[in-house]
Amino acid sequence: MIETERLILRPFTADDAADLYEYLKEPGAHCFTEMKLASPQDAEEEIKRRMNDELYFAIVPKDVNRAVGEIFVHSEPNERKDMPDDTFFPCWMLNLKYSGRGYAYEAASAVFDYLFRNRGARRIYAYADEDNLRSRHLCEKLGMRQEGIFLEYVSFVSNPDGTPHYENTYQFALLRSEWEKMHS
Ligand SMILES: CC(C)(COP(=O)(O)OP(=O)(O)OC[C@H]1O[C@@H](n2cnc3c(N)ncnc32)[C@H](O)[C@@H]1OP(=O)(O)O)[C@@H](O)C(=O)NCCC(=O)NCCS
Question: Which of 41, 70, 138, 152 is most deeply packed, by most CB within 10 A?
């Protein structure tokens, strides 16, 4: 569990299923389309997957005391088997009723700090679609460098005529040395 000024970042529990359903019945970004939940019963199944992954954090503001979103982190296997995994890839998602309050930044900063200090992170990178201005802005606020733009990189949804809609995807990254410099 991680505590910040306004938030508790904690593992999911079975009691969070209704809150999960509320933000996954209509995911707020194309890249989460596959996570869309059809029913509250599906949320009860989906929550079990989150409960079994220690890098899935429910974002719980202390004053509302419910899961208003999540930040989850993938650990990337090191190419060198003789070295620890030190590259992490976070994704964030809020119930959009709760966006615009600084919760995503507060949660992501705390998780970055945890990864760099406690999990041996050397590099954290993130993707954001070109039209996802909020997520791109969040990456920039966190001090991440834009490393590139991949044109027509991936498709999550179809256009109205049935053809795949390809996203231009921005990649951002941050090294532990950069984070330490920013926070020294
Ligand atoms: C991406 C996403 C997590 C960003 O959430 P967000 O709430 O916009 O992000 P932030 O935490 O940065 O907060 C935004 C604003 O809240 C404002 N805010 C309001 N009250 C605040 C407070 N008390 N403290 C701090 N900030 C506050 C901030 O000023 C900030 O705006 P600014 O950065 O222009 O100053 C959210 O839009 C989302 O879930 N989108 C759908 C899923 C998604 O796209 N995921 C990413 C896929 S790549």
Answer: 70
